[in-house]
Design brief:
about 230 residues, mainly beta, eleven-stranded mixed beta barrel
Length: about 230
């Protein structure tokens, strides 16, 4: 494990990693108001050669009008050791989540630019020592702002989004700021009900436990390729 040369004047350890994320989403319209979403994400480290996280998420959404919807959902996450100061230092561990979220996606008067806001509340159960060990309960709130701007071709658009994660509650160990995610890139609305997005992604994450009394910040950067199938 690297030592104190990575330490800056603010007693912060910086851990830089090259990542690649591949989320695959499937959305199924059940009726005019209800829809189901399933998602699996392959999150890779070391330029895609080793594991960072695996995530499965599902949820039921209720649309209240053309621009607003609510969702209840569940996610399973498996975190693997990666980086110079791994969160999963004792080995891979699991997490179960419940979430409630609100999405508001108004379209401008020209019907082109889409500005989306998402507020998600998560209840998290983490097991860092294996299935036989104790589970830790955490709360987290996530705030996302996203902008889609179509290009001249109706099938192509550029996007940018930022998402802030804030932990709260008695079991949040050292930090209220959990992480921030930022991405920008190019999207394509394909034939029928297929959408692809390719962009640059950065994740700034503050680990919950200090190392040697110093806070550890991960700076994870790399490509993000999203595939969305709408049925």
């Amino acid at each position: 494990m690297p030592g104190l040369p990575l330490l800056n004047a603010q007693y912060r350890i910086s851990d830089h990693n090259n990542i690649f994320w591949l989320p695959v989403q499937v959305s199924v319209t059940l009726n005019d108001r209800l829809s189901w979403t399933g998602e699996y994400q392959w999150r890779r480290d070391n330029n895609g050669l080793s594991r960072q996280q695996d995530l499965f998420r599902t949820g039921i959404s209720v649309k209240t009008n053309h621009a607003q919807q609510f969702q209840l959902g569940y996610a399973w996450v498996r975190t693997h050791p990666y980086g110079d100061f791994p969160i999963a230092a004792a080995g891979s561990f699991s997490e179960h989540r419940l979430h409630q979220q609100w999405i508001y996606s108004p379209v401008n008067q020209l019907g082109r630019t889409v500005w989306q806001q998402r507020l998600r509340l998560e209840q998290r159960w983490l097991n860092a020592v294996g299935f036989s060990g104790p589970w830790t309960y955490l709360n987290r709130i996530r705030v996302l702002q996203r902008l889609n701007i179509p290009l001249k071709s109706k099938r192509w658009y550029v996007y940018a989004w930022d998402e802030l994660f804030i932990g709260f509650g008695r079991n949040v160990p050292q930090n209220v700021f959990d992480q921030n995610r930022l991405s920008a890139g190019l999207g394509w609305n394909g034939v029928k009900a297929v959408k692809l997005e390719l962009g640059i992604f950065q994740q700034i994450l503050q680990q919950g436990k200090p190392v040697g009394g110093h806070n550890v910040f991960q700076y994870n950067t790399g490509p993000l390729l999203m595939m969305h199938f709408m049925l």
